[in-house]
Specification:
This protein has 350 residues and is α+β, with helices and mostly antiparallel strands. 37% of the residues lie in helices and 27% in strands.
Length: 350
């Protein structure tokens, strides 16, 4: 018989052992990600295991967090700031899992799951949002075959041009490198009219995931100056190129192409099977085209809320205007004030 129960994933070694063996297990399932989120935002983990009653072995794992916010209410969510995190349980068990969660957190307004390819089997009152995609590069072919499959002018020629331009790559070794990356991250977010994640989020990733061997920081430099970087998360057979940033002035030097190619080479040498290029809004056509020129296969993300809220705030109900107004202000806001905005709002988001 199988029993649902909550466990402390940090101290119960069965959790990470199960995740590491599961074919769909990724970095966001790991107990180390729970530590990053708890240390940065103070959210409470609710890690649910499907346990074999007789042997005590795990047959399933589904990580969630309880997020309490005076602005957005109390809710139970897939690990915050995960691109996706499919429950590692049979689809037929979803309804029982939801009932289990609501029994333990009766004050929660809803449960939110971020799904990549999980087939949800739950009550009909489910709101599904599918406005995002991610892209996976299949790293199993040989390195030369991979390179030759990339777009000629947008990728291959630019990688060679970056090398002629003196762009160099290395793996970051110090917090000074992390701070250099964060400077670039703040610039990218401001160009898009968005506040940056707090520095504490990246520092906690650097310390906690780095100590577990689950993070690398790739940086590229030009004439001794850090001009682009990427925090690479890795777990199992997948590398996640999720947090990347660069100086706008370095684009003509092809810094981004050099950065991604060097990360791909390292992932390939490490025996990784896939490179996740991160989430894109479906409306961002140019970014999607760029990722597909690297032979990234488009996969749709489904963000499911159950039970569905009776009123869902979306752009049709006026939040689009508010979003555009905030983006306009953020592009013109002093950097320190924009950082303060990020520290203020991200604890309420997921």
């Amino acid at each position: 018989m199988l029993t649902l129960r909550t466990i402390d994933a940090v101290f119960d070694r069965r959790w990470d052992d199960f995740v590491s063996r599961h074919p769909s297990g990724v970095i966001y399932h790991r107990s180390a990600w729970a530590q990053v989120i708890a240390a940065t935002y103070g959210h409470t983990p609710l890690y649910i295991a499907l346990e074999e009653t007789r042997t005590g072995e795990l047959a399933g794992a589904a990580p969630f967090f309880i997020v309490k916010s005076p602005l957005t209410g109390e809710r139970v969510v897939s690990p915050p700031f995960a691109t996706f995190c499919d429950p590692l349980v049979p689809p037929s068990g979803t309804a029982d899992m939801a009932a289990f969660i609501f029994d333990r957190v009766p004050t929660a307004r809803h449960i939110k799951m971020k799904l990549l390819d999980f087939k949800l089997d739950a009550p009909s009152e489910v709101l599904v949002s599918s406005s995002y995609v991610t892209h996976f590069i299949d790293l199993r072919p040989g390195l030369d075959e991979l390179f030759n499959a990339f777009h000629v002018s947008s990728v291959r020629q630019r990688i060679r041009r970056a090398e002629r331009n003196g762009i160099t790559f290395r793996w970051g070794q110090s917090e000074a490198d992390l701070r250099g990356f964060y400077r670039l991250h703040k610039g990218v977010r401001q160009r898009h009219g968005l506040p940056p994640q707090p520095y504490a989020f990246f520092k906690n990733m650097w310390i906690i995931l780095g100590a577990a061997g689950l993070l690398n920081l790739g940086v590229v430099e030009h004439e001794g100056k850090l001009v682009a970087g990427s925090i690479v998360l890795k777990s199992g057979h997948t590398y996640h190129h999720e947090y990347s940033a660069s100086e706008e002035a370095s684009w003509k030097l092809c810094s981004n192409q050099k950065l991604l190619w060097e990360i791909i080479k390292t992932a390939h040498a490490d025996g990784a099977r896939y490179m996740d290029l991160g989430r894109s809004e479906m409306s961002n056509v140019s970014l999607i085209e760029y990722k597909e020129r690297w032979q990234g296969k488009r996969l749709h993300l489904s963000y499911c809320t159950l039970p569905a809220p009776s009123v869902v705030a979306n752009e049709r109900n006026g939040s689009g205007l508010l979003k555009r107004s905030m983006e306009f202000l953020n592009r013109r806001m002093p950097g320190r004030l924009l950082e303060w905005e990020g520290r203020l709002i991200y604890p309420h988001r997921d």
